[in-house]
């Protein structure tokens, strides 16, 4: 049984940083893809970043490129999203999602497993 558990959300001032974690169990550590999505109030869920565990290939949405960094610790089956220079428009519930197979996925429908989400609020 696959389980994804996010942690690390919270309240941060503009310009600050947070690191989100996604602990994945039940997924082969070298044959899976983990993605981060977010959903702001009144908006559709959007893809933020993803990483393929086998080769470490990554993808970033234009809105976060240069500010967010995704990484994976295969020994811990955990994917991290380091978020720097946070802006109020980054405020959202952040979800991690998992898929079998190690290649880049951009869209929600490509992921089979989802975490419960963690709230990130950027406000002064």
Q: What's the gist of this structure?
A:
This protein is an all-beta fold and 124 residues long. It is 0% helix and 50% strand.
- Number-wise, the strands total 11
Rounded to an integer in angstroms, the radius of gyration calculated over CA atoms is 13 Å
Please state the structural category. mainly beta
Q: Indicate the low-confidence ranges by residue numbers.
A: none
What share of the residues does DSSP label as strand, in percent?
over 45%
Please state the overall shape, judged from the principal axes of the Cα atoms.
globular
Q: Give the SSE string.
A: EEEEEEEEEEE
Mean pLDDT: 94
Distance between the termini: 40 Å
Question: Which key phrases capture this entry?
Answer:
11 strands; mainly beta; four-stranded antiparallel β-sheet; single chain; seven-stranded mixed β-sheet; 124 residues
Describe this structure in words.
There is one protein chain. The protein has 124 residues and is an all-beta fold. It contains no helices and 11 strands. The protein has strands at residues 3-7, 10-12, 18-25, 32-39, 46-52, 58-60, 68-73, 78-83, 92-100, 113-114, 118-122. Strands 2, 4, 5, 6, 9, 10 and 11 form a 7-stranded mixed β-sheet that branches. It has a 4-stranded antiparallel β-sheet with strand order 1-3-8-7, with no helix packed on it. A hairpin with a 6-residue loop joins strand 4 and strand 5 (46-52).
